[in-house]
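dumping this here so i dont lose it
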């Protein structure tokens, strides 16, 4: 017997806010958004002298909006890009690599918020408590 998980907005359309999303944003995402915002200010200030910073500023804006809105593809893209930054900066700038590792861990810990019913569930699998409850109902 498998348990199906639904997000609140999937079962109750009236629960949606004006943007169509009633999902609560985890605290880990808010911390990540704050850190990305601080980095974005630095990118914005460096755009006149280094035009490539505009691309990173645009990427940070996409990550902030996507993580807050709950877009799964942005969640995965962020983990990939931040993971690559950890590897790329590990020898050149260890502190930057450490900050990116912190971001990966923060966002990664919010996995259940982006994939609520998909994490740790295999079709056809049952937990002990579900099995024992099912067996007891057959004994009656």
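and the seq i came up w/
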């Amino acid at each position: 017997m498998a348990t199906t998980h639904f997000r609140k907005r999937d079962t109750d359309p009236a629960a949606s806010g004006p943007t169509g999303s009633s999902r609560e944003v985890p605290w880990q995402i808010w911390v990540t958004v704050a850190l990305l915002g601080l980095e974005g200010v630095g990118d914005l200030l460096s755009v006149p002298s280094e035009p490539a910073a505009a691309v990173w500023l645009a990427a940070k804006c996409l990550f902030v909006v996507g993580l807050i809105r709950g877009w799964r593809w942005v969640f995965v893209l962020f983990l990939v890009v931040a993971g690559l930054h950890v590897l790329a900066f590990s020898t050149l700038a260890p502190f930057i690599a450490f900050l990116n590792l912190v971001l990966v861990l923060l966002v990664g810990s919010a996995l259940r918020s982006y994939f609520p019913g998909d994490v740790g569930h295999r079709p056809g699998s049952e937990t002990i408590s579900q099995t024992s409850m099912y067996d007891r109902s057959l004994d009656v």
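Residues 126 and 132 are 10 Å apart (CA to CA).
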